[in-house]
Amino acid sequence: VEVKIEVVIPEKERSKEEMSPNGKASPLIYKVNGTARHYHLEEHPIASNPYHNPKDVVEASVCHVKDLENGQMREVDLGCGKALLIKESGEFHAMGHKCPHYGAPLVKGVLSKGRVRCPWHGACFNIGTGDIEDFPGLDSLPRFQVKIEKEKVYIRASKQALQTQRRTKMMAKCISLSNYNLSSTNVLIIGAGAAGLVCAETLRQEGFSDRIVMCTMDRHLPYDRPKLSKSMDSHPEQIALRPKEFFRTYDIEVLTEMQVAAVDIKNKTAVFKDGFKMEYNKLLIATGNTPKALSCKGKEVENVFNIRTPEDANRVVKLATSKNVVIVGASFLGMEVAAYLAERAHSVSLVELEEVPFKKFLGERVGRAVMKMFESNRVKFYMQTEVSELREQEGKLKEVVLKSGKVLRADVCVVGVGAVPATGFLKQSGINIDSKGFIVVNKMMQTNIPGVFAAGDAVTFPLALRNNKKVNVPHWQMAHMHGRIAALNMLAHGMEISTVPYLWTAMFGKSIRYAGHGEGFDDVVIQGDLDELKFVAFYTK
Q1: For the segment 167-190, what is each residue's pLDDT rounded down to a tens digit?
Q2: DSSP β-ladder status, 289-291 and 419-421
C-alpha cells in the first residue's frame, strides 16, 4: 500500500528560504510561528500486520523469561536465522545480531542506556528502534516482535530480515526531477566520502524531497576508503558503500570526475574546473584531504604512489608481489600497507623521521611494541632519516637513497607522510579557513557563511569531551557523524555534535582500537601486557 500525502500551504506562509532554486517550495517543509517543521516519512510498518507475506514469517520460542537478567544479551536461533535478544529495565527486545558494517557479533558488544555498541568498530544501535546512532556503517538493524506467553519468550521475525541482518531506513524521493534546471540544485555536496554520503542519505531519511547533487573528483561512486590500505586488492565494486541502483532509487545524483575550482558565496554558485557552474541553496563541503608528496630529487619517477584510489592500491599489490617495497612514513597508512605487503613482497623497508612509529599519537612504549611486532614479521625499519633521492632505471624506480647514505633496492615506493586539507579552492571564497587550511565550523557543522556547512577530514570543530577545543579528527567514524549533523542542521533541527572520536587499525591479525582524543598527553598508564600486545593504554595529562 502506498500512501501519498500532499501538504498545500497558503502562499503567504511560504518562506523564501525554503524555496527550491526553480521557484517551487520544498513540499515537505512548512513554517509554524517562524520555525521550520518537517514531515517525517513514517518508517514503522502499521503495527497490526507488520509482515506483508505470511510465508516470510517465522515464530519461535527462544528461552524462559528467567533465563535473562536485566542488562544481558543473548544470540538466539529461530531455525532459519539468528536474532539478538536483549533484556533491559524488565523489557525484552529483539533485533539483528550482526553489525551491518562488517558483520561483527553484537552479543560480544556492550549494552548501555538503551543502546548496543559493536565490539569491533564502535557502531551503536538503539534497542527500541534498531536505528544506527553512532557510526561507522550506513544501515540500521531489523527489529523483531517479542511476546511472552506462559513464562516463555517468543520472537516473531521476517525470514528475509533474519537473512540480511540489516535495514535501510525509509527515504523520501525527489519530486518531479524532470522540472529541474540542470545548473541549479537545492543541496550541493562537494566530496563523495562518508560525510557526503551520510549527509545525502540523512536528508532523504528526514523526508527532504528536493534535488541533491554530490560531486567528486573520483571516478567511482562512494566507497569504503579505509580498505584501500587494509585490504589492498579490493576492487571498486567490492568496496562500494552503496550500489548504483541505490542512488537512482533515492534520486541522489553523483557527478564523478568533477572538480570544483571555486565557490562564489554571494551568488551561491560552485564553479567547476571545466567552467560548468551550479547554483545551490545549501552547500556541504566534504573534500577530505590531499596526500603530501615527496619533495626530493627524482620524485616524478614511475612506480611511486600515494594510495588515493582502488586502482593505486591494486597496482601497488601487483608491482610489490615478490619484489622490493619501500614505504616512506610510519603513518597509519604506511604501517597498514607494510603489514599488508609483508607476506606478499620479497622485502618491505619502512623509512620514518621519528625514532618510533606512532610516537605522537600512541606514545613511545606502545609505538615500540607495535614496531617489534612488525620486525618479527620481516619489516625492516630505517628510523630518524628521510629520503634524499629516488633513482630510476629506464624511467622506473630502482633505488631509494636515504639522507643517512643508505641505499635501498626498490621496485615500488608508497608514500604516507601525512596529508593537507583539500581546501585550496576556497582561498578567496570568504569561508573561514585556519592557518593550516582547515575549514572552521561550529557544533552544528556550520561555517561562518549561512547555508554553507563543512564535514569530515577537512574541518576543525569543537570537541565536547575536550571542553569544546577546536580539533581536527580525520577518522572514518567521525566523518559519518559530521555528515549526519550537517544534514539535520540544513533542515533546521538545531542538532549539536557530541560524539566520542573512535578509530581502528588492523595489522598482522592484531587490532588496535582508540577512543577519545589524547592530543597533549604527557603520561601513558598501561594495564596488561605490552609485549603480548594484550593491553589497555590510558592517555593522561
Answers
A1: 999 899 888 666 667 889 999 999
A2: antiparallel
